[in-house]
Every structure is written in structure tokens, then in C-alpha cells.
Amino acid sequence: MTTANMAFSDIASYLKLELNQLLPNCSDLVVHGINSSVAVCYVSGLVDTKVLSSSILSVLTMLDEDEVNTELIRQTITICEIEREGNLDQVALKLLQGHVYIAVLDEYEGLLCNIANFPTRAISASENETVIFGPVLGFNESLSSNIAILRSYIKDPDLVTEPHMLGTKMETRIQLTYMSEYVDQQYVDYVKSKLKQIKTDGLLGNALLVQKLQNHPYTIFPLMTLTERPDRTVQALMEGKVVIFMEGDSHVIIGPSSFIDFFLSVEDRYMSWGTGLFIRMLRFIGLMMSVFLTPVYVAALTFHYQMIPPALIVSLIETRTKVPFPPLIETLLLEITMELLREAGVRLPTKVCQTIGIVGGIVIGQAAVQAGFTSNILIMLVALAALGSFTTPNYLMGTSIRLIRYPMIFMAGLWGILGIVFVAMVIFIHLLRQTSLGRPYLFPIFPFRGKDLTVDMLLTPRAHYSYRVTPTKSGLKSNETENNQQSDTASSNSSSSNET
Amino acid sequence: MNKLQIKSISVVIMLVLLSGCFHSNVLERTSISVAVGYDKIGEGKIQTSSVLYGATSKEGKESSQVITVEGETSKGARLNLNQKLGYKVVSGQIRFIAYEGELARDGILSIVDTLSRDPSYGDMMYLAVTEKPIRDILAYKYPNISNVGNYLTRLIAHNIEDSWVPSCTLHDFRNDFYSAGKEAVLPIVERTNNEVNVTALALFQKDVMVGKIEPEQAVYIKLLLDREQPESLEVKMQKDGMAKYVKNVHHPFETIKTALGNLGSKSSIKLISKDELQFDIHIRMNVELQEISEDYDFTEKGAVQQLETELSKQMSIDLLNALNQLKRLKSDAVGFGEVYRSSVRNSRLTKDRWQDMFPKAKFNTKVTVNLIRTGTIE
Amino acid sequence: MDVRIKPRPNKRIQSFALLFIICNVQIGIGVFGFQRYVAREAGHDAWISVLLAGLVCHFSGWMILRVLRRYESADLYGIHQDLFGRWIGGALSIVLILYYVIVTVTILRTYIEAVQSWIFPEFPTWLLAVVLLFLSWYAGISGLRVIAGVSFMGFLVIFAFSMLYYNPIQYGQWNRLLPIAEASPYQLFNGAVAMGFTLSGFEIVFFLYPYLKDKEKSQKYMQLSMLLTNALYLFIMIVTTIFFSQDQLLRSVWSSINMLKIVKYPFLERIEVLAMGVWMFAVVPGIIILTWVISRGMRRLFNFEHKKVLIIFSIGVFVVSLVFHNRQQIDMLNNLISKMSLIISFVYPIILNIAVAVVWSWRQRQANKGEGGSQHEQTSN
């Protein structure tokens, strides 16, 4: 810089010229000359202006113009994260990450101070995953505050947070988090190898990252849990799972997840054993109803009239005689209406939502029956099926459950009970083929692990005092004995290195 | 998912779609039959009456429709039935089938076998016999019964559960027909004016009706069959030793009538001599007294015991009479043959052999009545 | 072809999986109507025959594992080559493969026949065959673990449905079992022979053995599995005997389904329709496992690729199953298979045991005599 900036009387105009070449069209770049030999530049909006004025600008103006040098500045200003940087290309990148650059005339290296303050929202209650009681806190979009929340739960050196960068353009910061003592190293290795393979400009959220991490891009089931609840995340970490945080997303990824996990809510464990179990079972009944109720209706009315008991058949005939469509069309019509109502409710502002409820309830319900479009019984069944799918604590899984109903209804209309069983088998085999971070998706059911299944399904009181099911690692322990022995040693190594 | 997989999956989906919708039985586009009756009209001709669910009913009441056709076989009649109806007749909901007595006396196996051959018929439908043409029962316009088919089903079902009618499902009939040592029984259904009721039991030899037995005796058969039990039974006996416990005699009486509630009974049939074909029949009953025709003084010592003894005595006589009636008609409705077969090794019992042997059987009957309580008063 | 195979660790399954794989292959469709074949021979003592056949089955399973233990990690294809040489052994393996192809066709065709006679008389045979083969292909391409998973589901379905037989018990007349052991030993033996085809299928452990992770537990789980199967068959045989009268039983083609006709609930009647459909869960695993065995054979003998074999095999089975039009032909097929399965499941293990003993002791002697025969010496270590 010594020779180059000779032409300019002050450092500020030199910097302005240089940076404008590196960051053209960057209107929010500020280059502020304190005096002729010191200049400060930053991107407005990305830095904490309070810190800037109180800790940097006020100090810099106090310094004598002729005696100033970087070492002096470094010693006087009260910012903790300061580094020297002479390469303007690097400087330009850092400016975009919220650093302030202090340049001094006649010196090659300037100072980069990190006082980044990205726009973010305050920590608030989790909105999409609500519980009646238990902590309501939810993550927000700031990675550092999310990690801070996590650390406030787990104050242990075992908590590993590995930073990674994703994307060539957006440079998304993610943090791979796990408890080094509990985690099965093969999951960590799996995630790392997958992260290396990802080639992208950048990812907008964790939901997109999940898709990149799974083996089967076409599956309709979520293969990893997304949550914004810290308590759920902490529980997962304690169970030896891997958690991925992403800058700019309030949802974190928990993996490996199994099919059953999506129907469990942390709340179940906050309640007493009996009530928690009851609610959990209720959800599984809801799942069954949601998937099978309307297809069975279609199958029974189209082919298997003999399965209907006499008390029911009379009322069925009565309601059905007015309906002009075959059961298949009737059911599809009503199911799609139901989905439309739900979708409309999501898209509209909260206040209008209530109107949708009335429209749905009165217009569709009453009028459709009176107009002879559908039968009363079907309306009830469709409503029950919809209710069943809404009890699923995970939104993505709830949507998948609703989706698999359609092929089932369709096949029930074509082949009756055989159609239902056929689709059920295809889905079952499909689920068996899926893996989540290399662990089978249907984990405690198949491969069968009685202990895990009882803890997951029956919430045996053991679950209240110990987080982990199997002493160190749940999961594929016995599947690959050789691999596991390696990972055993690997994880113990990593944990010991962490302690030292 | 590689290309091969996508190809195969799409091939299968195409096949599925091409296969399209095959023969369906959409509920409201079928004529659902709930009860069928077979009448004999002339030689080899069968008249079939079918009770169908009313296809178009505006009110909330269950309505019905009765259609009668003629045919040489029951299936042939069904073909003719289809010609009379807007929708195809389906038989999966039939729960009641009746045969006219005439037909039953000729044998009903061919019709019964037809029912079992077709998987759409259920095994739990009730079979019954009528003395008069069934058409009169099914086609009659009852003021209080909206669907006579369902009504008849309920009538038989509740009589099996609570009263003296033994189980008479299609399965039971075939079961008895094909078993070496037991004959089938079916209830006889009659209409009197606006009511339908079960009047007696029809006794069979193989698939041929040979006679009937009255309710008073049929109740003992039901007790011996030991699956469902009659809820109550009436016993009429001579006053004999009980006279001294009866107070306030205003009118001369010869017999005492009692109504007993059955609180549980156990019966045992033992073959005691295979050469003389002698059976020991013992029924143990716990009963409560529901009604007694005279003012009987239970407070007096020995009164209850006396009543128990008299009841036991009278009932064992009644039981023997019922069994003798069976013997006379050569119809082993209780299944003594089964007892014989299961107690005698290598008996090689066949239905025909047992029919010859059964009239020679001797019965020692014994009934032990245990009067648990006399209702809420004494 | 190597005699011993060492599958990669992630391709192996636990011995525990044998519990439901074997159950599934054994039960499958045989359970629909085995009763009348046994009762035809042994009358009301059929249950004793079932018990006898079950005991023989346990013995046979023990024999099979005895052979397999000696080879440590070989399947039957490898054992054939080792015992009988490349050509005779190969021929035997081909015969086995053909046998399994026919068994697969039988299972497929019998289930289709059952569906057609009970729910959908006009359901096209080809369509149902496509459906079943599609399912088995879909599971088959994903490897042994998924196959084990599907069997697990089938296992659950089988035992859930056996609960339904509680209702027929209430209609049963227990004195139909009396007098016990009226049938002569010869009749009982014939009855046990009639159980042969129904019980066969456990010999697939010949092919699964190298893929087991904890081989020392294989005996335990295999015997346990056969115990469950036998208990189920015994239970159903006894229920059938007390439920049907003798002649009625002999006339029922599908006795097990017939018994379900009396089950009814306030919200559902005629369970047999449901059972018939859901039984697909129990039939498909059998087809999948046999397909896998055949495909293994093709790979071991001719080095064909697994996925291609699956497609070709599926098409082949599809075509063959269309050849059978009516129940007489299906019965004929069943009779043919039942004789073959008796030999393969029950007699062949004994022959193999003898062959192994003879060949190995002969090799021992050869090795003792001279320094030659080193090749075999190595393999036997």
C-alpha cells in the first residue's frame, strides 16, 4: 500500500476506489475517513452501530493523526475479535460478513474487527410445534444464539460443535453437533461424507439440507426430523443422535430418525406414564384411521357389501341412494375438498381462517349432503381421517400420511381389499428400504429391538430417568460388528481428546 | 432409483390402469336380499320368495320389497329374479332362509349345498321351516314390521340366545348333516294374523324332515346341547308331597305350575353299556323360582327341599318323554351317536347304521335341580 | 464357484430373523386347506399326525444344521459342488432351482385360486400374478434385510390371524377328538406324510446360513421357529377337528377360511374376506424368499446378475402360472410338489449327512495315506 497510495492525499479516497472495484454496485458500503491517515469501512446494516461508534470511532478520533499506527489502534480499541489483513480481496469478503476494516496510511496491513450484527428476530415461543406444557422456548434464525440456548442446557465439554460451510455463493454456515460420548461415530462420519459431496450455490434452509442428506430423493416420507424445540434437540443429543444447526434457519435437523419418532412428542414424557401412553396410543390409532378409514369405506361399498353388519347397511343404503357417483369418485371428491380447505386455511391470514372453517363446515358439510353429492357417513369418515392425520406431531409426516391415502382410495375403488393391501405392502416395503443416516428407517420395529420399542412405544418408566436406551449407543450396533468396534475406539478417542 | 426400476414401476402402473374396474357390487346399485324362502309348487318346481332392501326409501325407516319367482333349481330361480329387478340380486347379506314343510319332507340338501358352495353366502344365516307356504309369511303386509327379513332374523337370534330354540345356522345344519351320530333340528316359523312366531322344532333324518317336537320338550333338547341355554322353563307337576306346604287353598287343584329361571346348567351324557346301548343322562341345574301357581310356604322347614325333589322328579320324566319322542321319530337331535362314536373304539359308525341303532337305545334320565333363590320374596 | 462364501457384513442378517423367515416359508398358503388331506388319512386323530410330522421336522432341521456347521459358511450350492463335484453337484443344484421355481408357481397359483374362489371370482389371474410378482421384485431388489423385514410383517399377520380362531373353538365339540388314537399307526404315518408339503420350506436355511451373523444361535432360532409353526398347525388342526364333522371337513377345500366365516363383530362381518386380502402379507414373503434362493443359485452357478435374474424369473413364473386354468390342475401341481418336497425337506438332509460323513472320512484317509489331496484338505480346515 505504501507505494500505491502515494497518489492520494488521504487513505479514505484510496480505499473507496479500490473497494468499489472489488465490490461494484455495493451501495451500502461505507468508507469513512476519520482523518487523512485513518479510514474505517464497513457495510451498513451488517454491523452493530452502537459498538462501532462507542468502541471504534470514538477511540479513533481521539488518536493523534501523525502518530497513529495499527499496533496502537489494536491496543486501544476495545473489540475482542481483531485480526490483521493486507489482502483487499479478503477484506472485501470479510466486510460482507459484518467486519469493520480500519486502514492506516502508509501501512500494508489494516485491522479487521468483527462487530457483525445480522438482522435477526428475538427468541420466542415455538409456533409450529406447540405443547400444552413444558418449555415453550423455540430456536430462532441466529446460529450463535441457538448454540447458546443449547449450551445453556448442556454444560459439558462432550458437546461437540463442528462448523462447516456449505455452498459456493451463499456460504451458509452450519454446525454439526453431537455428544461425543454417546454418539455412534458412524452417523457422524456419514453426515461428514455427505456434506463433502454436496455441490450447490447454497441452501435456503435445513429442509433442503435434509433432502441432500438422504439416499432416496423420491421418497415422500421425511427421513430426518426437523424441529425448532430446544428440549427435543437436547433429548436427541442425549440419545446419541446427531444435530445439524444452520445459520438462518430456526429448524434444526435431528438424525437418525425412525418412522416412529415422528409420532412421538416430547410432551408425552412430561406427563405421567399413563396419560402420556394414552395420548401416544391415541396418535397411532389416529394414524391407522387416517390411512385406512376412507379406503375401507370405498372397498366395502364397492365390492364387499357382505362385510357390513345389518345395522349399518340400512343407514348406508339410505344415504347412498341419493348420491349419483360411485363411492370412489364420491370419496376422492370429498377428500380433495378437505385438502383444499386445509390449504386455504394455511394460506390465508389468521383472521380470515375462521371464515374458512365456517365455509367448510356449513357449505361443504350441510349443502353437499342435501344436494345429494355425498353421504353423511362419508363426511364423518373423511373428517375423522383428517383429524387423525392432524394429530401427528410432525407437520411433514402428517402431510405424507395424507398423501398415501390417495393411492389407497384409488386402488380400493379398483380392487377392493386387495387394492388396499397391495398399496399397504408397497408402502411397507418402501419404508423398509429407506435409511436415515444409514440406519433403517423402521428401526425399532425392524430390525427388531424389543428394548427400544418398549421405551419408544410404551414409555416405560425407565425412560424417565435415563435418556439412552442401550448403554452407550442405540442403533445399528450389532449390524456391523467390525465397523462398530472401529467406531467404538474412534469415539472413545474423540471423547478423550475432547477432555484433554 | 435407477432407470430399470422406474421402467418396471411404470409398466405395472400402466397394467393396473389398463385392467380398469372389474365387476363391482356398488351398494346402492344392487338388490340386496336379506331373506329367502323356498316353496314347493308342483313336481320339481320351486317358488323362491326373496325379501330385498327397499331400493328407494324416502323416510328413515327400513323398507323392504318381496319378489317371488319360480324355477327348477334355486339358482335358476335367481336368474329369473334378476329379470324382475332393476339391479342385480346379491346374496351376501342373506341372514334367513326358510323351507316349506313340503319341501323339507322331500329333502333340502341340494339347496343347502348350493348355499355353502357359493362363498358370498355367510355361514351364520339361520335356516327355518314353515308349515304353510312361505310366501304368505314374507309377502304379508305387517303393520308393525318394516322389513320382515330382518325381523325374522332377529326373532330367531333372540330365541336362540334366550329361549328354547337350538342354534340353527347353516353351519350347524351342515355340521349335523355330515356327522355320523347327530341329526339337525330347525325351528318352525308360523304367521298368525299380524304376528310371526316360532312354534315348534322340526326334526330331521339326514336332510329330510320327519316330524316335529313341541317347545315344552324342545327345551330339554336345548339343555342337552349345552351351548346356549334357555333362560327359563316351565314345569307342571303333581301336587303329591307338596300339598302340605300350600296355604290358603281356595280352589281344588291337581297340579302345581312353576316357572323357573335358569341360572346355569350342566348336562352329561354317558354311554354305560355299548351292547345294550344304554345312556346315562344327567342334567344339573341352578334355578331361581320366578312363578308358582299356588301360595307355597317357603318359610316352613323342608319346603324348599321338597320343591327341589319334586321338580327334579318331574323334569327327569319330561326329559325322558322328550327323548322317547326323538326315538319314535328316529331322529337323534341330541347327538347320542356322537357320544357312542367317541366312547366306543373302532365303532366305524355311519349315519345309516346309527339310524338303525338309535331306536334301540335306552335312557336313564336324572335331573338335579338346585333352587338358589325364590326371587326377592319368600 | 467357491464352496464357502463370505458375504459382506452389511449384507448379513441376525439369526433372530430365521424365526420369522422360516415360519413364513412354512406357513404361507399351506395353512388354508391342509386339514382335509391329513384328516383323509388319519380321521379325527389328524392332530397326532401333525404332531408326528412336527417332530420329524425338528429332527430334519437339526440334520440340516449339522451339515451346515461342518462347512462353517457354505450354502447348499457350494456343498453340492464340494461333495459331488462340479458336474453332478451342478446338476443337483439345477434340479433344486427347478424345484423352487415350481414351488413358487404353486404358492402363487394357489393364492390366486383362493382369492378367486373367495372374494373376486372374476379377478384376472394374470393381473394378480403381476401384482404379487411386482411386490416380490420390489422387495427382492433391496437385499436380504428388506426380505427379512417383509417376513417379519408376514409373521405378525399370521399370528394375529390365528387369534381369530378363538371363535370357532366356541362352536367346537370337544368329544370329536375322542377316542384318542383310534387310527392305526399306518394311518397316522400317512397323515404325517400328507403334512409333508405343508411343513416343508425350512430347508431354505441351507441357503441362508452363510448370511447369518451369529451362526451359533442359528440352531436355537430355527428350532424355535419350527416350534411356532408346529404349534400353529397343531392348534388349527385341533380347532378344525372339533369344529367340523368328519364328512364336512373332507368336503371343505379351504377349511381354515371356512372357519373364519362365523367370526363377526358389531362393526365388521365376514372376516374371511379381510383375511383373504391381508393374507397377501403372508404369501408374498414366501415368494420373495424363494425368488432370492433361486437368484442366488443362478448367481453361484452361472454368475448371473441378481436384478436381471429377478426380472427374467418374474416373467417366467408369470407365464407358467397362466398355464394353470382350473382347480384340478392346481391340485395336480400341489400333489406333484408334495412328493418332491417330502424328499427334499425330509429325506435329502439325511442323505447329505451320510454323504458328508463318507466323503470327509474318505478324504481324511486319503490325506493320511499320502501328502496329496491337499486341495480338499485346505477346504476342510
TrEMBL record, chain A:
Amino acid composition bias (Low complexity), ranges on this chain: 491-500
Keywords associated with the record: Membrane, Transmembrane, Transmembrane helix
Positions of the UniProt region annotated as Disordered: 472-500
Keyword Transmembrane helix carried by entry: yes
InterPro entries: Spore_Ger, UPF0353/GerABKA_families
Coiled coil: none
Matching Pfam families: GerA
Similarity section: Belongs to the GerABKA family.
Name of the featured protein: Spore germination protein
From TrEMBL, chain B:
Membrane topology summary: Lipid-anchor
InterPro entries: GerAC_N (IPR057336), Spore_GerAC-like (IPR008844), Spore_GerAC-like_C (IPR046953), Spore_GerAC_C_sf (IPR038501)
Keywords attached to this entry: Germination, Lipoprotein, Membrane, Palmitate, Signal
Predominant cellular place of this UniProt entry's protein: membrane
UniProt keyword annotation of Acetylation present: no
Limits of the Spore germination protein N-terminal domain: 25-190
Gene3D superfamilies cross-referenced by the UniProt entry: Nutrient germinant receptor protein C, domain 3
DNA-binding listed as a keyword: no
Pfam families: Spore_GerAC, Spore_GerAC_N
Superkingdom to which the source organism belongs: Bacteria
GO biological process: spore germination
Protein family (similarity comment): Belongs to the GerABKC lipoprotein family.
PANTHER family per record: SPORE GERMINATION PROTEIN B3
Protein name per its UniProtKB record: Ger(X)C family spore germination protein
Organism: Paenibacillus agilis
Lineage summary: Bacteria, Bacillati, Bacillota, Bacilli, Bacillales
Automatic annotation (TrEMBL), chain C:
Keyword terms of this UniProt record: Germination, Membrane, Transmembrane, Transmembrane helix, Transport
GO term, biological process aspect, one: spore germination
UniProt protein name: GerAB/ArcD/ProY family transporter
Keyword Membrane: yes
GO CC aspect terms: membrane
Location relative to the cell: Membrane
Record organism: Paenibacillus agilis
UniProt similarity note: Belongs to the amino acid-polyamine-organocation (APC) superfamily. Spore germination protein (SGP) (TC 2.A.3.9) family.
Major subcellular site: membrane
Stretches that traverse the bilayer: 16-34, 46-68, 88-112, 118-139, 146-166, 186-212, 224-244, 273-294, 306-324, 336-360
Lipid bilayer topology: Multi-pass membrane protein
Gene3D superfamilies: Amino acid/polyamine transporter I
UniProt lineage: Bacteria, Bacillati, Bacillota, Bacilli, Bacillales
